[in-house]
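Note to self: user wants both folds in one dump. Writing first protein now.
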Amino acid sequence: LGKFKIGKINKQVMRTYLRELEKKEGYNPQNALSVLKPLFAFAVAEEYMLKNPTLKLTCANIRVHKSKDENEKVLTKEKQEVFVNFLLESNYRCKYAYLFLLGSGLRIGELLALKVEDVDIDKGIITVNKTLKREMHKDKLVDVVGEPKSKSGNRKVPLTELALMAYKEQLEMFRVDKIKISEKDVLFPFIDLRTKKIKSKKAIENFRSISTWDIQFKELVLKCKELHPDFPIITPHSLRHTF
């Protein structure tokens, strides 16, 4: 739509645009419409255009087919071993969060909302019943912990050997740094790659956005790639696909 002047965008233009999206791999026209409706409503309110071209417009909520690139972002057993060993041999104090992610298959938002009490070693399960997400609050986007986006998001996940190791090492790291963690505390607070020691509990109390974690993970992957040039560029969600 970027090639159009905003006043020239009408229902006909929108219908053509949505039909084109239906043909593209990895796109959902319904999602596009959901985003554009309030955008054009704002444009009308600000008198950039006379009518909202998305009003009473509908489109098929098609099932999105993942692109080949996304399907390829699954680590083979060999690449998993490379990544796990890279993290374990590193001095990064955030490494246990990503090892737990690979060992549990949680979404990144679910991992960040996880509390110490949600991991039950005796029963061998992880209780997932909340997620970190961004919401508007007093005209500002803020990070909040809330319900998973669907009922199926509330679930029990098996505590694998890798996840259990990451859980224990995370708690041991807190103990070594003399940080007292209770059952109600977040298990994986944000720890910068350059952190050598957690100096106080206050330094890890505030949530960091998922995008901040994504940026850190990308930096981590690039460092892994320096040692292993054939290692793929992956995202935290790739670890869920791998699981």
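First done. Writing the second protein, which came from a different request thread.
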Amino acid sequence: MNRARIWRLVQAVLLAALLVWIGRELVQQRDALRAAAGALRLRWPLIIAASALVLVTYAALIQSWRLLMAGWGTTLPYGAAVRVWTTANLGRYLPGKIWSVGALAVLAQRAGASAVGATGAALLGTLLNIGAGFGVVALAGPSVLDALGPNYRIAAWGAVALFVVGVLLLPRLLPPVVRAITRRREGVTEPVQPLPARLVWSAVAINALSWVGYGVAFHLLALGLLPAVSGATLGFIAIWTASYLVGYLVLIAPGGIGAREGAMVAAFAALGLVTATDATILAIASRLWLLVLEVLPGLISLALTPTARSRPS
């Protein structure tokens, strides 16, 4: 058995164990969850506003990705970029987050972007998004970090410091990596220029604001589901960002399923913003909500993407 098969087997076993744990937790709380679900009073204007804000956040992230591609001398029309980005987003629901990154590069190249621009922007955009997320958690959620444990705040600020150093170095460190990937994959030998620092920091700012947008949308969703929810918006921004990062960094979990929800419930419990049952309701509801907002645009993009037609002989 080769290494790839062994890794897939390990992923499957770990994912199965994670899903079994989630199922057991839900069974143990089923009566409380049933009672809480029956008490829900949906406020659709807030839920619709939350969903619209997420879509606006997507639009900002797509523009950030286009900026990075432009820094490497390639452009995509915004409509084509939306189709590529939302379609590639479906890859995050496969075990191993590299699928969505790889799909973004490949689909962008098929849409007309250069190999260097497509690959570099996909890699750098992912790294900047993760790093900006740690920065948002460190700034917006010190109380969340302190509640989770004595060393979480130190770890978060350490990650922020590494991120800042990385942003300063990546424009020069990434070109040889991109060049090696594109040459190995397709024999591309085009030169890779360092990105301007101003452009990289602009992408960082957009990604940071996007995390804030996600968190505000999550707060609106919570108020739309559970009107009695208390707590400042900053707490919801920190909880959403931290739990999303946990889900993203657990590579075995497609779309962070299970890991994100567990982290979210733990963060709510640590802060005492809602009861354990309401925290579980919010975790499950936000998963279903985000699933629709991630998958539906991707499926629409797939349906609208023109299929390649064979040339007549």
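Dump finished. Worth passing along: The chain is about 80% helix and 0% strand.
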